[in-house]
Amino acid sequence: MDAEERRRGVLELARRTGSVDVGKLAADFGVAKETIRRDLSIMEAHGLVRRTHGGAYPVESAGYETTLAFRTTRHVPEKQRIAAAAGDLVGDAETIFVDEGFTPQLIAQALPRVRPLTVVTASLATATSLANHDPITVLLLGGRVRGGTLATVGHWTTHMLSGFVIDLAFIGANGISREHGLTTPDPVVSEVKAQAVRVSRRRVFAGVHTKFGAGSFCRFAEVSDFETIITDTALPLPEAHRYSLMGPQVIRV
Fold this sequence. Notes:
Elements: H1 3-17, E1 20-21, H2 22-29, H3 33-45, E2 49-52, E3 55-58, H4 68-71, H5 76-87, E4 95-98, H6 102-110, E5 117-121, H7 124-130, E6 136-140, E7 144-146, E8 151-153, H8 155-162, E9 166-171, E10 175-177, E11 181-184, H9 187-199, E12 200-206, E13 218-221, E14 228-231, H10 237-244, E15 249-252
Parallel strand pairs: 4-5, 4-9, 5-6, 9-12, 12-14, 14-15
Antiparallel strand pairs: 1-3, 2-3, 7-8, 10-11, 11-13
Keywords: DNA-binding, Repressor, Transcription, Transcription regulation
GO molecular function, one term: DNA binding
Pfam family, one: DeoRC
């Protein structure tokens, strides 16, 4: 097996399992750990993986995106803390956009139930979870349903959104970086997110630390478009400060 074949094998494994370990890769492929580290460095330079201490995880791209079911198994305690902090930011907002994805779904569950709220979402999972909760009114955006994320996309979705003025939007992303802003792999998803950013008075990005520094295919917003970023404490404090210099308040929970 040459180096290119080995890297393809490493990438396939990373995408199938969610992360890879240097020691196990070295044993599986019968090469030195330093060889695997070199492979991962090359793959990171090409935007395919992100290095971690002792391993790496895949970066979502135009050719690869995790499913909603997979996201429910990763960094769950961190996502729950992020959701709780997001719920505390609602303030006097009466209309709220909740993005697709598992973290936004948890945010929907953390919304206050003491007064009427109107929640706009493209996520079937979020709409279903809130449908029977008074005093919340749910508006589900129409469009084509993406099987992997159970969310609507397309012209109908963005057209419906364009007719709203929303008080507060909770937005997710597949990657966020100071260089490339907020990104996602699929252009049709990017269009929905960009429209939500345009029609919302306040915008909050919520995502775990692994999103930071990653860049995907389609940019839909800049870091400076957001008033608040909520993430977990695994994002180093100096890096959080660098994002805060771009405009948003950064909350680590």
